[in-house]
Structures are given as structure tokens and as C-alpha cells.
Amino acid sequence: MLANIRIVLVQTYHPGNIGASARAMKTMGLNDLVLVNPRCFPDAEAARLAAGAEDVIDAARVVDSLELAVADCVQVVGASARLRSLPLPHYDEPEQMAHDLVGHAMADPVALVFGRERFGLTNDEIRLCSHQVSIPANPDYGILNLAQAVQVLAYEVYKTWRQRPHSDYDNPRPAEERQPTREQLGHFHAHLGRVMHTSGFLTQPHARTEEQLHALFARAQPSRKELSLLRGLLSSLEKSVSGD
């Protein structure tokens, strides 16, 4: 199950932080590391600070975009300060996040996403996530470096995995009850956008309306079967609008 939990680092500036994050992962049984456009990788400093977790570094995958990094994941949690301008479901407590993430990881890939050292994830990158999570800290100085943040959340995940009855892992949910991947959900939102425009519901680009609908479905968390039903409804509406 832990093999289904992915750590994604976006545009890491210091290669040593990649190594330290790999070390934090390995201590908690995680080994799936994906790097989105790192400034410098491979790098000797990354290997040096991995300190025994060189296998995680060696197996790390480098991709060009966050979208590619999480396409096959059913839950994607962005580690960031709470942004009320982006109404995604938010975990105020990492423990609750870990409970849900481990539940999904019993059958499908999931991801924890961490942004740049200086300014974290952009709004567009957070929109590619299904949830946000914040790490409670001293309000007067709540700054963690990248590897520390990875360590805290990886620990919560590992603790939850250890405490969960292992009988749960023998009975994963049926495929139709599982969450859709981010790629499947992206196809749905693209389909919904086309129907809204061709039907006349939207007569011009309206990012706010589409963003609100993205947030609505993020909160609803439709299953794969439910998403398939919605896609069927959209196809029927599409045919009615086109006159076919």
C-alpha cells in the first residue's frame, strides 16, 4: 500500500533538498518520488544528503509538469497555507489527511505535492490538486523547510498505515466505487466546459464559473461510476444541442 503513495516536489531549487526529502521518505517507508522541473538534477549534493536513501534518488522520475506527475492519482493533496480564494477541500489537521490518503492508497495511486522552497505552489498548481493540507505550527514562526514538511506529512501517513487494521488491505473497494484519476476528472471538466459553451450557458470565457464547478466536484468526490453517469448525461445533452 505504501508503494501507492507518491511524493511530488515541484521546481526544487536546491538539489540538497531533494536528497533530504528522499531520506525523510525512506524513513517512513515511502519510495515513489517524482520531480517536476527541478533546477538541478541529478546532482551530487542530492545523493550526499540522501544519506542512505540513494535508491529513492536513483528511482526518482523527472517530468515537465505537475499535471503529468499526478495524472494517474485519485487523490492529490497540496501542502500549502490555506487559500480561501481557492475553495478546495482543506485539511486543517494532517492526521485526518493521512487517514483519507491511506484509505485511497489501498487500491490506487495518491500524491502529496510540495512546492518551491521560497513561495510554494502557484494557484494554478493548487487547482490541479483535489485537496490542500496545512501543517499546524507556531503562528509567530510557522516556517518549515521542504524536507521538514515532507517528514511531517510522511510520518502522519506512516503512522496511519501502521495503526490501520491490516484486514482492510485485503478488501479494497470495487473499481466502480473508487475515485476517478485526476486525468479522468480532467476529461470530465473539459467535457463539461464544452457543453456549457455549446449550449449557450456560457457565452464567453468565464474562469470563475468553471473554477466554482471544479471546487463543487472536488467537494462531492464522485466515484468512477458516478462520473461515468455524468459523462453519459453530458453526451446526451451534447447530442440534443447539436441536433443529432
Provide the descriptors you would attach to this structure in a database record.
7 strands, Helicase, Ruva Protein, domain 3, 10 helices, Alpha/beta knot, seven-stranded parallel beta sheet, alpha/beta, 244 residues, single chain
Task: Describe what this molecule looks like in 3D.
- With 244 residues, the chain is of the alpha/beta class.
- It folds into two domains: 2-170, SPOUT methyltransferase, trefoil knot domain (Alpha/beta knot, 3-Layer(aba) Sandwich), CATH 3.40.1280.10; 175-242, Helicase, Ruva Protein, domain 3 (Orthogonal Bundle).
- Helices cover 48% and strands 12% of the residues.
- It is built from ten helices and seven strands.
- It has helices at 15-27, 44-50, 54-59, 66-70, 94-105, 123-127, 146-163, 182-198, 207-220, 224-242, and strands at 5-10, 32-36, 61-63, 75-79, 90-91, 110-114, 131-133.
- Strands 3-2-1-6-4-7-5 form a seven-stranded parallel sheet.
- Helix 1 (15-27) packs parallel to helix 7 (146-163).
- The longest helix has 19 residues, at 224-242.
- The protein is globular, with a radius of gyration of 19 Å.
- The chain starts with a strand and ends with a helix.
- The model has no long low-confidence stretch (mean pLDDT 90).
